[in-house]
Amino acid sequence: MSRAPEFIALSDDAVRAVAGANSRHAALIEDAFGVLVETPGGGVSISGDAKSRGQAKKTVLAIAERADQGLEIGEADVRVAIGQARGGGGGSVGSTSPGSILPVGKRGQVAPKTPTQAKYLDALSQCDLVFGLGPAGTGKTFLAVAHGAGMLLRGAVDRLIVARPAVEAGERLGFLPGDMNEKVDPYMAPVWEALTDILGAEQLRRRREKGEIEVAPIAFLRGRTLSHAFVIVDEAQNASRAQMKMVLTRLGEGARMAVTGDPTQIDLPNPRDSGLAHAVGLLEGVKGIGVTRFSAEDVVRHPLVERIVRAYDADAAKHGRTV
């Protein structure tokens, strides 16, 4: 490291975000680029060769921009900023229009972590029907729930409805203990977790009791007209073509819908019966319908998840199959 350190003047909030608890964020940046990151006061100092310093600087500035917007910075945000800097990006991860930052998270605002997430939130704010396709850990469901919760809180819709195919349960729901809600809840756990993370347990309980929030299997939507509601169809790759048509035609006056799923993770006995890819093929390009495709670069869970997704994608491409 023969080059002189580069100093970047930042706000106190930005410096704390770049450093992270116990300097964890700074360590991630150091490991990624082979640099030394220090916070001597009033900013951040980066030591290393010119190329590495440049990439680290892009990462630091991206983190600082989010911190100065009042957004919470976690390790996932740092890893995304590192990935953007490596890919020649840098700066903001994407649009910061009003539709892309949602003031509904119990720990603060919910904002996109990747450019694709930003495009997804923009599509949710502009289109009546949005398909979000991609691997696990990309935020498809969480962001749709956050957007729907935001619409509910500001009175843009009267209800938030989340539906999932209960593929694992099938007709065996009757063998589970409890009433119908208790039978169904285990299959809806990921949705309840997202709602709890966004709204908090107490507000979720109140709104659920008032009928403003409903989580149910897709079959429960048959025969209904969903008006003035934000509807999320999660794990839609496990909905049959007939179920998908049924759900899409439930939209009533003042309703919006997000359909999320991973076309490579189909649990149906006959994967060709999946309605998600079929619906996207029919409807992409239709006015009022948006389609956002996520990739491994958008994974914001544990860093291993991105590597796992890439490995499976590579195997599928090699053998010409899906998993």
What CATH calls the topology of the largest domain is Rossmann fold
Report the helical percentage: 40-55%
Succession of helices and strands: EHHEEHHEEHEHEHHEEHEHEH
Biggest pleated-sheet summary = 6 strands, parallel
Assess the beta-strand content as a share of residues: 15-25%
Number of separate strands: 11
Label the structural class.
alpha/beta
Low-pLDDT regions? 89-99, 169-173
Tell me, what's the shape?
Answer: globular
| Order of strands in the sheet with most strands | 8-7-9-10-6-11
Question: How many helical elements?
Answer: 11
What is the CA-based Rg, rounded? Answer: 22 Å
> Into how many domains do the coordinates divide?
2
Just name the CATH architecture of the largest domain.
3-Layer(aba) Sandwich
Average predicted local confidence, pLDDT: 83
CATH top level label of the largest domain: Alpha Beta
Quaternary status of these chains? Answer: single chain
The named CATH superfamily of the largest domain: P-loop containing nucleotide triphosphate hydrolases
Distance between the termini: 45 Å
